[in-house]
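thought: user wants a sequence for this fold. calling inverse folding tool.
action: design(structure=
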C-alpha cells in the first residue's frame, strides 16, 4: 500500500485533482484585489516618454546662458490640481489669483478621463485650457495616483523652465492666505530650493502599509527602516520634481499593486520615502496643507460643512497646534492650504474671501 501511494502515477493523479482547488483559491491568495486598477505597459511607456522629454528640456534650460536669463525673470509656482470630479472651488481660486500677473504662476489639471468633469467655463477663469493632455484613469488605493502626480510634475517641468515650486492640490482644497504671502514664503532666500513634504516614521500603521504588497516584496530597494509615510499633498522644489520623474529604482516597487487595500495608500508612501532616502536635508518634513483627521472615515479626512465656516475657523486652521513645532520643525511656517470641504462651502468662502481668507 505504501509503495502504491508513493508511486509517480499516484502523485501525478493527486496533483491533477488539486488543480481545480488551486484555480479556485489561488487568485484570492496570490493575486492583488480584483478591483485594483493596474498600470498597463502602454501607459508606463507613455509616461517614460513624457519624463524623458521633461528631463531633456530641463537639462537644456540649466545651461549657463539660459540660467543667466532666468535669474533676470520672475520664478513661478506651478499649481497642480489632481481631480476626479469638478473643480468646485474654481471661483475661489480665481479670487486668490486675482491681480497676480501670469508671470508668477502656472496651473495644471489632471482630470480622470473616466470621471465626469466640467472644466470651469465662465469668463476670466484662470483654469481655462489648463487640462493636461496626458491624464489617465486613477483609483484610490492604487499606484495610479502616483503616476498622475508624476505626470503633473513632468508636464509642469516641460511647460515652463521658470516653474520653481510645484504645489499639489485636490478639488477639495482651498487657499488659506493671499497669494503674495505664499510667494514670499516659498522664495525667501533662506528657504530656497527646499521642499515641503510631510515625512513621518513610527506611525502605528506603518508595518501594515509596508507589507500591503506582500511580505518581503519591497526588498531590497526599500527596507522597512527606510519606509516613510506622509500627506499626499506637497510643495516640491524644481530639483526634487526632477528627482521624482528620474526615479526608476523605487518606482519598480511602488508601482506594484496591493493585496491589502485597507493599508494601501501608495501616494502617501512613495514621495516621502523617496525624498527621505535621497535628499532629506533638502526638505522641510511637513506639509503646507491643513487636514483634520479627527472623525475620519474609511481613510478620508473630516469634511467641513457650510455651517462650520467662520473667520474663527480660518484663524484656527491657518496655524499648526503649538506642540507641532517640536514634532515637525515647522520653523514658524503656517498652513497655506486646507482640505477637505464640501462643494456647498463655496459661497460662504467667497463671502469671507476679501475680509478674511486673503488678508494676513
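)
observation: tool returned 360 residues.
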Amino acid at each position: 500500500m505504501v509503495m502504491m501511494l508513493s508511486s509517480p502515477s499516484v502523485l501525478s493523479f493527486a496533483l491533477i485533482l488539486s488543480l481545480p482547488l488551486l484555480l479556485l483559491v489561488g487568485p484570492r491568495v496570490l493575486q492583488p484585489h480584483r478591483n485594483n486598477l493596474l498600470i498597463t505597459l502602454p501607459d508606463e511607456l507613455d509616461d517614460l516618454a513624457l519624463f524623458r522629454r521633461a528631463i531633456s528640456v530641463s537639462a537644456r534650460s540649466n545651461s549657463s546662458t539660459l540660467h543667466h536669463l532666468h535669474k533676470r525673470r520672475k520664478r513661478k509656482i506651478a499649481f497642480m490640481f489632481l481631480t476626479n470630479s469638478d473643480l468646485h472651488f474654481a471661483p475661489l481660486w480665481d479670487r486668490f489669483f486675482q491681480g497676480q500677473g501670469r508671470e508668477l504662476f502656472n496651473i495644471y489639471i489632471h482630470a480622470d478621463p473616466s470621471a465626469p468633469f466640467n472644466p470651469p467655463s465662465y469668463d476670466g477663469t484662470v483654469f481655462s485650457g489648463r487640462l493636461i493632455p496626458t491624464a489617465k484613469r486613477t483609483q484610490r488605493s492604487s499606484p495610479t495616483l502616483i503616476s498622475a502626480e508624476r505626470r503633473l510634475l513632468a508636464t509642469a517641468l516641460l511647460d515652463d523652465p521658470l516653474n520653481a515650486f510645484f504645489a499639489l492640490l485636490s478639488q477639495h482644497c482651498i487657499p488659506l492666505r493671499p497669494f503674495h504671502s505664499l510667494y514670499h514664503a516659498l522664495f525667501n532666500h533662506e528657504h530656497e530650493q527646499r521642499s515641503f513634504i510631510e515625512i513621518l516614521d513610527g506611525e502605528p500603521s506603518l508595518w501594515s502599509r509596508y507589507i500591503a504588497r506582500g511580505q518581503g516584496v519591497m526588498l531590497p530597494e526599500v527596507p522597512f527602516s527606510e519606509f516613510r509615510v506622509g500627506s499626499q499633498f506637497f510643495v516640491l522644489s524644481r530639483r526634487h520634481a526632477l528627482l521624482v520623474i528620474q526615479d526608476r529604482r523605487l518606482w519598480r516597487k511602488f508601482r506594484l499593486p496591493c493585496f491589502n487595500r485597507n493599508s494601501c495608500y501608495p501616494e502617501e508612501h512613495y514621495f516621502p520615502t523617496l525624498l527621505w532616502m535621497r535628499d532629506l536635508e533638502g526638505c522641510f518634513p511637513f506639509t503646507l496643507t491643513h487636514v483634520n483627521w479627527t472623525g475620519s472615515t474609511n481613510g478620508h479626512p473630516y469634511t467641513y460643512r457650510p455651517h462650520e465656516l467662520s473667520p474663527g475657523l480660518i484663524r484656527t486652521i491657518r496655524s499648526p497646534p503649538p506642540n507641532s513645532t517640536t514634532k515637525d520643525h515647522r520653523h514658524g511656517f503656517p498652513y497655506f492650504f486646507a482640505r477637505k470641504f464640501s462643494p456647498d462651502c463655496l459661497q460662504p468662502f467667497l463671502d469671507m474671501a476679501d475680509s478674511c481668507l486673503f488678508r494676513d
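thought: summarizing for user.
answer: Here is the designed sequence. The radius of gyration is 23 Å.
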